[in-house]
Amino acid sequence: MSKEQESISNFLSKLSEIAEKVNEYLDKWLPQNEEEYSANLNEAMRYSVMAGGKRIRPALTVLTAEAFGFKGEAVYRAGCAYELYHSASLIHDDLPCMDDDDLRRGKPTNHKVFGEATAVLAGDCLMLMPYEWFGKLGEYGVSEDKIVKIMKIANEAFTYRGVIGGQMLDLRYENKKIDQETLERIHMGKTAALLRAPILTGAVLADANSEQLKSLKTYSHKIGLLFQIVDDILDIESDAATLGKNTGRDVALGKSTYPALLGLDGAKEYAKKTYNEAILAIEPLGDKMNDLKALALYLLQRKS
Amino acid sequence: MSKEQESISNFLSKLSEIAEKVNEYLDKWLPQNEEEYSANLNEAMRYSVMAGGKRIRPALTVLTAEAFGFKGEAVYRAGCAYELYHSASLIHDDLPCMDDDDLRRGKPTNHKVFGEATAVLAGDCLMLMPYEWFGKLGEYGVSEDKIVKIMKIANEAFTYRGVIGGQMLDLRYENKKIDQETLERIHMGKTAALLRAPILTGAVLADANSEQLKSLKTYSHKIGLLFQIVDDILDIESDAATLGKNTGRDVALGKSTYPALLGLDGAKEYAKKTYNEAILAIEPLGDKMNDLKALALYLLQRKS
Questions:
Q1: Neighbouring-strand partners of residue B103
Q2: How distant is the Cα of B167 from the closest Cα of chain A, in angstroms?
């Protein structure tokens, strides 16, 4: 195994260890089905949040905080909050009036199981609950000052400047030819914003300084783009068996992609360039960034 | 004019003065249509938020803060945040999969104008933006400690213990006969929670103590119920011209109402009792509660 492959493999086993802990905490912290008067709601929220996934967003909070020497339950509480928002966003995305998807991670989508009205409400509730969980950080001794900082970081990612803004822009340009700048603004909103926020949250919890926050911000944006560029390439190059979903979907849907804009070789070059920029951004922070570097390498080299 | 009528009339003119300022601030603080990359989103959000209404929730923040001697733009910033959430909740309520309403305040509902996908996203964004606005309270010198307190008060009202929990319970018992306890739990969630939060927010901004907060909490719950009891009575007694909407709707829809549970006279007695409890709750706080008392009296005596 090359040194590169080894660092990716170490990173992936660390990631799955964290994901296991995230799953335990989510199960413990989500409202119980029998709690209060919102049993159906709680059941619908649990259904989607506990459906699995790599738990990459909470893992980013954990990895970043630990890189700066900060560990403990508070890091998981803050990181898991982003998983709630992520689940909420997927529930609303899958609605008939949005992407109209029946399956998500091999299971029927939320509205297929609980009905559309409950799916709207479960999504609403999961979008708002991160702020409840941020509020609970005080119980772990996190200062109000930091809680407000984290709340602002989350806002920036959740609303019109972040995910929702990106989705809106995506809707607006559906089936229209767009330039690279617009494509990147969509990805910055829909993808990069929700990688940036958990990374910066981990850094704030661990008292990173403003210079370090700036480096991590650039890194987040670059890996968000990198993820999307590689996604577009895999949609063309990979076979369905490896990718675990149908290939050629983007072309069939007439979506603007990097290979469409830059050609396949151009897109590959651009992926490499974006990877290099991600690494360069966190280079000044030294060895403690090894996990985040391994993540970038993994995103560049992944085959699925 | 009786003394009672005079206090109501003074209160109503104060309310409309505040509403005018609320409208100015909302117009100023909502993202501009041309801002960033979310033009359609901003247009859809403005459409619903600026559609009017009594602005009772921000007014409650303002009236409460001023009762305790605290004035200024920060009070409006915090109060207006609740109007964003309220608008969001109406946008999602009107969706075809929820109440399927085409008209709201005499205008086509959000999804009728902008399409369902945009209405879902505009609602999502408006639900989350209160936290952006709470975060901005620091710019007016409000301490992080208070901001976190307000954030928690808002959470309690917005999610499964508040509005969304109430809506869920309402959905669950649709077309089913329910007892008074269940009916009150629905109203506590759907209505009272979103009166309580702006009132407590005004009190926290103005440094009210925990005893005072407790009194205001009880008052909020009572006026929330009072509003609903009187609503149910008006649905039977008022004519459509006075009420500005069709009467007899509740009965036609098979909804559980107070007159159905207690008889018309019983419901009227219960309204009077609930009014008395609201007044009693804030009696110890003295004359500074006069506006809130006038509000309770108005809610009891209103004919529309």
A1: B108
A2: 8
Q: Is B103 helix (H, G, I), strand (E, B) or coil?
A: strand
Close Cβ partners of A34 (under 8 Å, ≥ 6 residues apart): none
Task: Report the pLDDT value the prediction gives residue B256, as an integer from 0 to 100.
Answer: 83
A64 inside 8 A of chain B by CB: no
Nearest CA in chain B to A98: B117
CB-count exposure of residue A189 (10 Å: 0-12, 13-18, 19+) = buried
Give the pLDDT band (50/70/90) at residue B34: low
Residues A171, B120: C-beta atoms closer than 8 Å: no
Q: What is the DSSP string of chain A?
A: --HHHHHHHHHHHHHHHHHHHHHHHHHHHSPPTTSTT-HHHHHHHHHHHTT----HHHHHHHHHHHHTT--SHHHHHHHHHHHHHHHHHHHHHHSTTTT--SEETTEE-HHHHH-HHHHHHHHHHHHHHHHHHHHGGGGGT--HHHHHHHHHHHHHHHSTTTHHHHHHHHHHTTTS---HHHHHHHHIIIIIHHHHHHHHHHHHHTT--HHHHHHHHHHHHHHHHHHHHHHHHHHHHS-HHHHTS-SSHHHHTT---HHHHH-HHHHHHHHHHHHHHHHHHHGGGGGGGHHHHHHHHHHHH---
Check CB contact of B36 with chain A, cutoff 8 Å.
Answer: yes
Token output for B176: 């089913």
C-alpha distance from B286 to closest chain A C-alpha (Å): 33
Beta pairing, strands A107-108 & B103-104 = unpaired
- Here the tokens at position A136 are 């609970």
Residue B160, chain A, CB below 8 Å: the answer is yes
Q: Could you report the per-residue pLDDT of B87-109, keeping only the tens digit for each?
A: 999 999 999 999 999 999 889 99
Interface test with A, best of B34, B110, B164, B194 (most A CBs within 10 A): B164
How close A112 comes to chain B (CA, Å)?
Answer: 13
B residues 207-246 lying closer than 8 A (beta carbon) to A = none
State the pTM of this model.
0.95
Does A150 touch chain B if contact means CB atoms closer than 8 Å?
no
| Interatomic CA distance for residues B85 and B64, integer angstroms | 19
Tell me which residue in B120, B148, B167 faces A98 most closely, judged by beta carbons.
B120
What is the value of ipTM here, to two decimals?
Answer: 0.94
Residue bearing tokens 């995910």: A163
* pLDDT for residue A35 is more than 80: no
Please report residues of A whose CB lies closer than 8 A to that of B112: none
Is pLDDT at A32 greater than 90 in this prediction? no
- Binary contact (B95, A169; C-beta < 8 A): no
Within an 8 Å CB–CB cutoff, is residue A137 touching chain B? no
